[in-house]
């Protein structure tokens, strides 16, 4: 089969995009918009005409911004955020926590089942954000390792998200793209049974086997937890450190302190040689636990440095009313790729930032200081402030708060939020209105009933999700319009020639599962859906079944921490390593592949 030059370009750009999406140094939002712009410009400069003589309009690549699936995703993100913002899910969390006093083994099973059920109708990120602090606090109180429950709980939400069209944004995209290509629209619960049956097998694995595969990890989340943070110690005039050599300072701390650098001015950094003389105004870059950082502050007469000035009486660090807390930069945080200065963190939240923890990477150098260090997804801020300030941060829902001292938020609007979300889902499930309409109507109802304020909506919406959806739809349009999907399907059928239909079905699902653990699951789903329909058409098999192969495969984000945002949250909270996800996630992927490969073909008669 001859491949058109424009089709070759679309395929090449798709491969480039998938690689670009894995680059940590380039924000996903930037990569996504870059792909859309390159597509539009290239097809404007080199116009493409199909076999019917019609010219592809480059502006079509921006159509994703108005796509029904993206509208539905945004509406559901806002409605789901309202459930968290009002504390509507907190009674469930508190109930699960109480179960641990009766039967830990049974409570694990019920936690997994509840996590999966909630994720079938609510985005799994707020579910994980709700349950993480609860499970961690239970682990701290019972002096047990949280590793046996945190990752299984996170993976259970992924299983639950596979069961309905609104469970994940990936499902909505697959269903919408398939509908755009002429397939009969898949209903909200049309694939619930195969997903639920396979998911139950996965839940049993997560309950009984996965905890045994995971090493014990110490709960690192008490206020004096052993995480290593990077911070500056400001040397005050007349303090012990003023005028001493670095060697003398090290001896004063009994060899405990490790100074990575000495900052003399805004733009001057001095190498920490043993005979380097420390003077007033210097800032020592150190790395240690929260407890040790506070001890260095006391022994050396220095202060932990934050936001360009010493901590003063207006912003105390050591009063009895002050508490330490750890804030995770999660997907809904306004801090991603921004600095503390840019968002006026200390003024807005009334908290002092003492240090930053970055999983898997030592922050050896913060030349601009803590306040000017761009933050990343998964970073953890060690902050100090009053109990009221920490409580307010939790109520705002801007961060995942990993402390064991404050209560879960709850408001008088929680009941309203639950009713509105229920009506939103019910209207779409009964076919009264499309999910895009019911989701947006639900989001508006949350605002009108004071469950949300308008400023909350911008926090609920994720620029990453929006732009990766638009980029994926643009790539899907290019591949479909140029005939690249037909070519890929033809090659796939040629390679699998002679194999049984079930093996081909499983092979496609395995391909999607591999892609979703390396690149964006939305990208894998949107690109894979038209290819799956072409494969089914060439084989004379039901296209709906192969669309489900893409949907289920793209949801199997089990084997790597970067495969899905909730995996990153769980990784940071539980102290897991990359290989921990491989150990627990790969067997789960195999279980789901085998189960779905048996159930779905049986449903569609091949």
Give the CA-based shape.
globular
What is the spatial order of strands in the main beta sheet?
3-2-4-1-5
Question: Largest sheet, if any?
Answer: 5 strands, antiparallel
Structural class: alpha+beta
Q: In angstroms, what is the radius of gyration?
A: 26 Å
Helix count, DSSP H or I runs of 4 or more residues: 24
Distance between the termini: 27 Å
Unreliable stretches (pLDDT < 50, length at least 5) are 219-226, 315-320, 404-409
Q: Which bin fits the share of residues in helices?
A: 40-55%
Hey, roughly how much beta strand do the residues contain? Answer: 5-15%
| Number of distinct beta strands | 9
Query: How confident is the prediction overall: mean pLDDT?
Result: 82
Overall description:
54% of the residues lie in helices and 8% in strands. The protein contains 24 helices and nine strands. The chain has 606 residues and is of the alpha+beta class. The protein has helices spanning 5-20, 28-45, 68-85, 90-99, 104-119, 124-142, 147-161, 169-180, 192-208, 210-213, 246-252, 290-300, 345-349, 387-396, 414-429, 435-448, 454-460, 463-481, 484-495, 501-516, 521-539, 543-554, 565-574, 578-604, and strands spanning 229-234, 259-265, 268-270, 283-288, 303-304, 322-328, 352-357, 380-386, 400-401. The longest helix has 27 residues, at 578-604.
């Amino acid at each position: 089969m001859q491949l058109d030059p424009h089709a070759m370009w679309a395929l090449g750009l798709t491969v480039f995009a998938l690689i670009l999406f894995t680059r940590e140094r380039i924000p996903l939002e930037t990569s996504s918009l870059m792909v859309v712009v390159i597509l539009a410009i290239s097809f404007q400069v080199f116009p493409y005409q199909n076999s019917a003589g019609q010219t592809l309009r480059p502006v079509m690549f921006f159509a994703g911004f108005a796509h029904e699936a993206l509208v539905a995703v945004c509406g559901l993100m806002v409605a789901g955020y309202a459930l968290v913002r009002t504390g509507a899910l907190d009674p469930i969390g508190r109930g699960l926590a109480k179960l641990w006093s009766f039967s830990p083994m049974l409570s694990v099973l019920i936690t997994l089942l509840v996590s999966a059920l909630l994720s079938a109708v609510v985005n799994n990120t707020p579910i994980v954000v709700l349950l993480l602090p609860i499970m961690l606090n239970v682990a701290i109180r019972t002096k047990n390792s949280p590793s046996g429950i945190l990752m299984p709980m996170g993976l259970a939400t992924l299983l639950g998200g596979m069961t309905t069209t609104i469970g994940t944004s990936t499902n909505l995209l697959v269903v919408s793209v398939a509908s755009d290509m002429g397939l009969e629209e898949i209903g909200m619960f049309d694939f619930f049974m195969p997903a639920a049956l396979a998911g139950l097998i996965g839940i049993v694995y997560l309950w009984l086997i996965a905890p045994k595969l995971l090493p014990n990890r110490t709960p690192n989340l008490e206020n004096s937890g052993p995480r290593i943070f990077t911070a500056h110690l400001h040397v005050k005039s007349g303090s012990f450190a003023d005028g001493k050599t670095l060697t003398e300072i090290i001896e004063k701390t009994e060899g405990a302190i490790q100074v990575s650098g000495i900052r003399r001015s805004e733009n001057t950094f001095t190498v920490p040689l043993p005979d380097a003389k420390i003077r007033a105004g210097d800032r020592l870059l150190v790395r240690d636990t929260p407890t040790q950082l506070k001890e260095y502050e006391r022994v050396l007469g220095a202060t932990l440095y934050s936001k360009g000035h010493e901590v003063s009486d207006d912003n105390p660090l050591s009063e009895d009313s002050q508490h330490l807390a750890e804030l995770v930069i999660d997907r809904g945080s306004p801090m991603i790729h921004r600095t503390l200065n840019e968002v006026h963190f200390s003024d807005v939240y009334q908290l002092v930032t003492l240090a930053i923890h970055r999983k898997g990477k030592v922050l050896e150098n913060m030349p601009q200081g803590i306040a000017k260090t761009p933050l990343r997804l998964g970073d953890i801020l060690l902050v100090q402030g009053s109990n009221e300030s920490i409580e307010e941060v939790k109520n705002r829902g801007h961060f995942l708060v990993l402390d064991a001292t404050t209560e879960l938020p709850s408001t008088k609007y929680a009941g309203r939020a639950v009713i509105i979300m229920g009506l939103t889902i019910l209207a779409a499930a009964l076919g009264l209105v499309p999910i895009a309409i019911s989701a947006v109507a639900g989001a508006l109802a949350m605002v009108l009933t004071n469950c949300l304020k308008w400023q909350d909506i911008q926090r609920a919406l994720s620029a990453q999700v929006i732009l990766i959806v638009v980029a994926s739809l643009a790539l899907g349009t290019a591949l479909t319009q140029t005939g690249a999907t037909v070519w890929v399907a033809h090659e796939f059928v040629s390679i699998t020639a002679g194999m049984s239909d079930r093996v081909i079905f499983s092979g496609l699902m395995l391909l999607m599962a591999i892609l979703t653990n390396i690149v964006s699951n939305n990208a894998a789903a949107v690109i894979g859906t038209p290819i799956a329909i072409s494969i089914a058409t060439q084989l004379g098999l039901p296209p709906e079944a192969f669309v489900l192969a893409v949907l289920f495969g793209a949801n199997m984000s089990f084997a790597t921490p970067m495969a899905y945002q909730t995996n990153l949250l769980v990784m940071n909270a539980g102290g897991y390593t990359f290989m921990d996800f491989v150990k627990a996630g790969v067997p789960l992927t195999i279980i789901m592949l085998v189960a779905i490969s048996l159930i779905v073909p049986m449903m569609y008669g091949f």
